[in-house]
Specification:
The protein is an alpha/beta fold. About 40% of the residues lie in helices and about 20% in strands. The chain is built from 18 helices and 16 strands. It has an eight-stranded parallel β-barrel with strand order 1-2-3-4-5-6-7-8, surrounded by seven helices.
Length: about 525
């Protein structure tokens, strides 16, 4: 089985994503996750260019990693200067790494208009820099920046830059589509021509400006490249880099090549989601292989076929990449999704059962009103159990009130008062909060805490509001989604109303009832 070297640059290229800013601790957390995934090389950043990257390379010296090798990144020496006297190159060498990636110019446009130097001087800079790195007993990789654009503009000179790096001792030369504008057929043709002249290993580094980064990376491997560079989730400047999650899955499952190995492949979804959390970036639900919707089925015809044979609408088993199959509850899904969910809950239902028909009609009616259960599976579970009378109430609402007040001295204040009944006990509680929903949440918890102390172990982690029909203006219905979380799990609930406070209350009550239901089932 052919082994493809996976080179991750999330900590450098990924850090250039709009909205991303990694602390040293963030970078350490991501590095550990990449190491456990079996990534061959982790590019940690550019020591010498900023204090944060310098601190990171110091930190990894005192941390044990089981598999991955760390790479420092930097540029060729400055024009008209010796590499041995370049302060940034000295910082790279003194970082203590055994692998350094140097990028240099391969497009004559960049040499003349950006570096403002001659084509001959650029070749000298490449040669001198690689030789300097090699003289320190450090393995050198060479990133040929803007290579494909350079080759299309001046193939003879672009090839000379690669030859200079090869002759100076670069172990691998990485062909970079830095502007992300190369079409796959062009890329294949150019790599086939380069392979005739370059004898060292080739790698590929593609940006996604054409939306073709993954396809181009796979095509490059099939054309003979042995190293693939990219980022987890495709993070990167502008439109991002090639998504290593898709690349790894395609190499392992489509081309029968080893990237991280079949065992580590099962960690792919977890790694993707973990790194999105550390990066403070929303996970793309429709991301191939690792997104929460990657194996989610909504149409009734699809679900019906899936129950009979999973291959009918899935390219792979979701467990292969650590994901899971989901059947979404909606008016489009028919009765099959209800039967599937009921089976998960150990409830016996038949397709022509009166309860099944009743549930199907109820879901259709609620979705017509604006509810959406596919993204709120906790509310859907409660709906099924309540409709089938397999649910005992934990409390009843006697009433609530929310006051929002603006004071000149302290600004906006929200206060909520709730009256509930637990068994035969009436409870009255009040709480201030940052907003009306926060105040309601606090008041409800305060009222229930003596009866259900387990609620202290959960909290609200996300809150989303969607106007369902904007044509009716301020009288429009709103749909509220609330995500709740405890020590181990998270769950979504939904509420719908013309009143945003009422919709929020519905979702809030569902979130607490779901937590109490799970605790009760666990303790049976």
């Amino acid at each position: 089985m052919r082994k493809i070297i996976i080179y991750d640059t999330t900590l450098r290229d990924g850090a250039q994503t709009e909205g991303v800013s990694y602390s040293v601790n963030d970078k350490m957390l991501i590095a550990k996750k990449l190491d456990s995934l079996g990534i061959d090389y982790i590019e940690g950043g550019w020591p010498g260019s900023n204090p944060k990257d310098l601190e990171f390379f110091k930190a990894i010296k005192n941390t044990k990693f089981s598999y991955s090798k760390f790479v420092a990144f930097g540029s060729t020496c400055r024009k008209d200067n010796k590499a041995s006297q370049d302060p940034i190159l000295k910082a790279l060498v003194s970082s203590g790494v055994k692998y350094i990636t140097i990028f240099g110019k391969s497009w004559d446009l960049h040499v003349k208009d950006v570096l403002k130097t001659s084509l001959e001087e650029n070749l000298r800079m490449i040669t001198d820099t690689i030789k300097f790195i090699r003289s320190k007993k450090i393995t050198a990789f060479y990133d040929a920046e803007h290579f494909f654009d350079g080759y299309k503009h001046n193939p003879e000179y672009a090839l000379k830059t690669l030859t200079a790096a090869q002759d100076a001792g670069a172990e691998c030369i990485i062909l970079c589509d830095t502007n992300g504008g190369t079409i796959t057929s062009e890329l294949i043709r150019i790599i086939s021509e380069i392979k005739q002249a370059i004898k060292v290993d080739l790698g590929i580094h593609v940006h996604n400006d054409n939306g073709m980064a993954v396809a181009n990376s796979i095509a490059a491997v099939e054309s003979g490249c042995s190293q693939v560079q990219g980022t987890i989730n495709g993070y990167g400047e502008r439109c991002g880099n090639a998504d290593l999650c898709s690349i790894i899955a395609c190499l392992e499952l489509k081309l029968n090549m080893k990237a991280v190995g079949q065992i580590n492949l099962k960690q792919l979804t977890d790694a993707s989601h973990y790194i999105s959390e550390v990066s403070n970036m929303k996970q793309q639900d429709n991301q191939p292989f690792v997104g929460t919707s990657a194996f989610a089925h909504k149409a009734g015809v699809h679900i019906n076929a899936m129950v009979k044979n999973a291959l009918s609408y899935e390219q792979i088993l979701p467990e292969t990449v650590g994901n899971k199959r989901r059947f979404l509850a909606s008016e489009l899904a028919g009765k099959t999704s209800i039967l599937f969910k009921a089976k998960e809950l150990s409830i016996d239902l038949a397709k022509n059962d009166s309860n099944t028909k009743k549930l199907h009609k109820l879901i259709q009616d609620l979705e017509y009103q604006g509810y959406q259960f596919e993204a709120a599976e906790a509310s859907f579970e409660l709906l099924i159990k309540k409709a089938l009378k397999k649910y005992d109430k934990f409390f009843e609402l006697d009433g609530f009130r929310v006051i929002v007040e603006k004071r000149p001295d302290v600004g906006m204040i929200s206060e909520a008062t709730v009256k509930i009944i637990v068994g035969k006990v009436k409870v009255h509680a009040a709480c201030e909060g940052d907003g009306p929903v926060n105040a309601l949440d606090g008041a409800l918890r305060k009222a229930l805490s003596d009866f259900y102390p387990e609620l202290n172990k959960m909290h609200l982690s996300d809150f989303k509001v969607r106007v369902i029909d904007s044509k009716t203006g301020t009288a429009a219905k709103v749909r509220v989604f609330i995500e709740s979380q405890d020590e181990k799990n998270s769950w979504w609930t939904v509420g719908v109303s013309e009143n945003i406070i009422e919709a929020s209350w519905q979702a809030l009550v569902d979130s607490i009832e779901y937590k109490l239901l799970k605790e009760k089932e666990k303790n049976k």
